Known about the structure:
- By secondary structure, the chain is α+β, with helices and mostly antiparallel strands.
- The protein has a single domain (8-168), classed as Alpha-Beta Complex (Nucleoside Triphosphate Pyrophosphohydrolase).
- The protein is 21% helix and 33% strand.
- The protein is built from four helices and nine strands; from the N terminus they run E-E-H-E-E-E-E-H-E-E-E-H-H.
- Strands 1, 2, 3, 6, 7 and 8 form a six-stranded mixed sheet that branches. A three-stranded antiparallel sheet has the order 5-4-9.
- The radius of gyration is 16 Å and the shape is globular.
Amino acid sequence: xSDTTEEFxxxxxxxxxxxxxxPRSEVHGNPSLxxxxxxxLVFNKKGSLFLQKRSExxxxxxxxxxxxxGGHVNPGENLLQAAKREMEEELGISECNPEFLYSYIHKNxxxxxxxxxxxxxxDGNVSFNREEIxxxxxxxxxxxxxxxxxxxxxxxxxxxxxxxxxxxxxxxxGQPQQR
Length: 179
């Protein structure tokens, strides 16, 4: 009998159209199944980016530095609701209105995610989820660039930041140019 507390994820096509639902344990570990996630890049007003160091107990990228906020979109949940829920759950941020930037597919040997990335500027207090996150700190963009490829970031974040830098034209501020 299956565990009723297991998280269920929507399976989607490459355009985000829901085509099914499956337990997380079936989706993770099967890169042929695409699922939706949201990322929120939380910048301070000086343009530095909050990154979270994932807990050593996480099944994906334990102990690696990762995107400010990231999480699964619940079945039937809209993307903005998911982004706001994840900001509250992971960093305790509720006063920030994230703006949609772009989407892309991230695929590795473990999973395939359809990522929807948002950003917001925030200078308030951060109260992070200590069960999922070991540490949170601000990084400036040049510091991030200098640490790429050194195995301290999750592969998801390396993909995310390269996509963001391309989207923003390499700008080092937290306010991307409108395209």
